[in-house]
Amino acid sequence: TLIYQDGLLMSGSLEALIQHLVPTTTYYPDRAYIFAFLLSSRLYVRPHALMRDVCQVCSSQQNLSNALKRDSLSLGKFGLNMVRLLRLSEVRVRVRWTRDHLSSTEAFPYDFRDERVMKQLKEIIHRLCVADCSLRPSLMQILNALLDCLTDLDKYEVRMLKTSEVAQRLVDTDSLQTDVHEMCESPAVLAEQLTHIELERLRHLGPEEFVQAFAEDSKCAEITEMKKTKNLEYYAKWFNRLSYLVATDICLNVKKKQRAKIIEYFIDVAKECFNLGNFNSLMAIVAGMNMAPVSRLKKTWSKVDTSKFDILEHQMDPASNFNSYRATLQAAMWRSEGGHNDREKIIIPFFSLLLKDIYYLNEGCANKLPNGHVNFEKFWQLAKQIGEVMNWKRIECPFQKRPEIIDYLITTPVLSENALALASFECEPPETNYGKGQYKQLKLELR
After folding, report:
1. d(Cα 224, Cα 219) in Å, to the nearest integer?
2. Are 202 and 97 in a shared domain?
3. How far apart are CA 263 and CA 249, in angstroms?
4. Cα 294 from Cα 311, distance rounded (Å)
5. What is the pTM of this model?
6. Last residue of a domain, one of 133, 148, 163
7. One of this protein's Pfam families, by short name (predicted)?
8. Helix, strand, coil fractions of the chain, as percent rounded to 5
9. Which residue in 107, 286, 304, 408 could disulfide with 88, CB within 3.0 to 4.6 Å?
10. Domain that holds residue 96
11. How far is Cα 422 from Cα 409, in angstroms, rounded to an integer?
């Protein structure tokens, strides 16, 4: 039994929801339902078990186990409908929701890294090809596109593994020679290169990672085996790295005038990120300048025109659950919907806040209702939030790529927290007894 309210599916048994997913000769599920179900079903059943159940329903209702006795005429439109469903395994689908809901999204190719899921996919493709040989070209195209997508993912993760060790390396020496201003004099160009980095990491995020990230073992024992969030973690670490890079560049300049110049430079970069809709880099830069080793440099800040920085801080103010940022994000979404080119469509959300929102949505809504039904109303809400992100990640970065700048941003060493504090004290000596004691202790520890 499936329970509806005002035409919207609200709940149902897992078996009924799976049955609702499988097309027939006369029925094809709503695409918004497909995305919502495939996204959140992993809270109850592993992808390989879901694929097995789908295959069993298909084989049972269409008698595919006796496919040699079937012909393409008796298979009817079911074969075409299955091709449409399996195409969701490929790369992209377009989903139309009501106003303020999902407009387009990515599918779930990463689930097919599980050999059991891939084996079942190949089995159902084989049965469909035997039953109707005219489906073979479309099915082979789906399989090849899926394999290409997984190959691209493997290459990305190998590259991230190599660079993440360097990118996350925090050094305890102030002998570094780093100044991003010398590498890239234009704040606008640096903002564009930061957008390249953001969009690449966003593009390789699987929608299922958002759900799996908050699946506690005690509550979701069924998915502990496949709780993979590697690309989500790479993206979260990038924010911290950028913040430390900003603080490092500022604190390594021994001359007050130069430090003020670097601060003003990063303020301009942050403003350019704001104009582009790159809110994650914007917040990382603001966070870097608000780190204690930077914010305590009162003499340096006195030389800085902070009017633009004050405006940016207001936009990112955490008050009232980031009300100012959420209003700005909504305005950016309206701009994106009416955008005529990729530049106008760029939206890169403040990633940590996005994760926080999804976490509280997951924690605040029960997975199952008292009658044992799956709470599909929660599925719709998760699909709306995550589907928006999947829509944003499809944007191709329209700016010229500067590999030397990108390599610098993701690989140059940055100071550790203690090394930053020491460098800050050497820029402007502490005035309080507590600060003097801390400075002395840091010199003993790091030198």
Report:
1. 10
2. no
3. 9
4. 18
5. 0.87
6. 148
7. RasGEF
8. 70, 5, 25
9. 107
10. 2-148
11. 23
